[in-house]
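User: Hi! I have a protein structure encoded as tokens and I'd like to know what sequence might fold into it. I'm fairly new to this, so please keep things simple.
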């Protein structure tokens, strides 16, 4: 076992908006196909998953709308910040994801981007969109829990 396998996960960014807008189900870890300047930018922690999503096309999974800031020292060899990136998954995982996302209202949402063992990984969740009233009731529930905690220490 080498030293890279023993290093803990280093979280680059999380998609906090996902928990508010979606009911998150099963989560899957996937690798990313990245350029060198993208990896260097991720090591600096310059990425955002807000409004990003994953799609299955021709038996492959692609990440759309994920913003990875350009690397400052790259000059003219830089990458496109919002380019479509391929996700690395086994074919049986892709088939299972396709079967689950065919249902109406289901989509693949990235929840966090991190380094594990020196490699960039992304966690995607099978999600169902929340309606406006579901978001309001969840917010009220959170408020009640916060009040109870403040008053009684629950």
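Assistant: Happy to help. Inverse folding works backwards from shape to sequence: for each of the 154 positions I chose a residue that suits the local structure. Here it is:
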């Amino acid at each position: 076992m080498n030293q890279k396998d023993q290093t803990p996960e280093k979280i680059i960014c999380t998609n906090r908006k996902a928990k508010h807008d979606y009911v998150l189900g099963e989560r899957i870890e996937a690798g990313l196909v990245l350029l060198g300047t993208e990896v260097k930018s991720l090591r600096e922690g310059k990425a955002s998953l807000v409004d990003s999503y994953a799609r299955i096309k021709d038996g492959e999974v692609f990440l759309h709308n994920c913003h990875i800031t350009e690397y400052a020292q790259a000059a003219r060899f830089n990458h496109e910040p919002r380019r479509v990136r391929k996700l690395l998954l086994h074919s049986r995982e892709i088939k299972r994801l396709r079967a689950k996302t065919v249902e109406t209202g289901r989509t693949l949402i990235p929840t966090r981007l991190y380094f594990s063992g020196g490699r960039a990984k992304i966690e995607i969740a099978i999600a169902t969109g929340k309606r406006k009233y579901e978001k309001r009731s969840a917010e009220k529930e959170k408020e009640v829990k916060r009040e109870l905690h403040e008053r009684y220490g629950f």
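A useful reference point when you look it over: The helical segments are 3-6, 16-21, 36-43, 91-101, 132-152. Feel free to ask if any position seems puzzling.
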